[in-house]
Every structure is written in C-alpha cells, then in structure tokens.
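INTERNAL AUDIT FORM
Audit reference: QA-55
Scope: verify that the stored structure record matches its stored sequence.
Auditor: D.O.
Record contents follow.
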Amino acid sequence: MSPFELIHRPVLCAAKPLEASKIRLAPLPEGAILQVVGLADGVAAVTEAAGQAGLSLRPNGPGQWFLVGDAAMTRTAIDALRGTLGDGFAVIDQSHGRIRIAVEGSAVESVLAKGTGIDLAAFPAGDATSTLIGHISVHLSRQSATRFELMSLRGFAESLWHDLQTMAGEFSDPRH
C-alpha cells in the first residue's frame, strides 16, 4: 500500500450536460468499473455476482465483462466479489482509469453514427461492443432504444466529450 493518499478528482467535473429536445449528453458518476475475465461459459456466474454486488453487467467479448455502478467500491467489496466468482475468474479494478458518458434522446443514433461504423439501428438494447468514436476507443453499450452508455479511458475523456458535443451540434440548437 502506498504511503501517499491518492485524491480522486472527476475528470469531467466541469462538463455541463448538454440538454436539447432530441439529444442529451451527460457525464456519469465515476463509481465502480470492474473488468472480469474468465471462461466464456461463465456468464451465469458473472451475472449472479454482479446482481449480488448491485452492479450492471456489460459484455465485452468472449469471457470478458465490465461490471459498472455509480458508487465506488472498497477493496474489501471487490475482494468479496472476487471470492463470489471463485477460481477461473480475474477481477481488475478499472475505476481509476475509465469514465462513462450517457448519450440519449430520439436523435441518439444519428449523433453516434457520425463517429462510429456500427449499424446502431441493428444494435439491440443490452448489447455492448468495443468500437471507435472518431479516433477514440470506447466501449459502447445500448441501454434502451434511445439511450447508450460510452465508456472510455480517462485520458481521452475531455476529447471524447468535445467530439460528442460537436456530433450533437445540429440537435443542440433550440430551433431544431
């Protein structure tokens, strides 16, 4: 354990949500983001562990998942989650290195289509994938027909926020 206390400062704390009639961009709380790696057939165990910990599950490929929540988790809580999963799974705390942004509204597909090659109309709620928004790597998760959550590395947060604001520009004018 380091003798120095690390002080957490939210990276998008100065970012004001963009709210318009057809689109909304909002930084989400920098709570818990855990990456779980294990057997591809371990989804049931990971789903159960996420539910017990009060976290949401985001698939990230075969044998990989993100567990996310709005509240930070203590090391003890993360260790308990690791114990729930048992052997064959690794849990990596990514909370310090990733951020989440909500993008929602009736124009969400039009806005995101400006930055990614994913066919968002064929991307059902509950699905998630890693992709690019412009030049920035993101984990894109569809929450509902009109809401997506983007997760990115912390160092790209301000650039991603700026790109999303630019992409949403045509919908942010109150005349639209």
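Auditor finding: record pair retrieved intact. The chain is about 25% helix and 30% strand.
Action required: none
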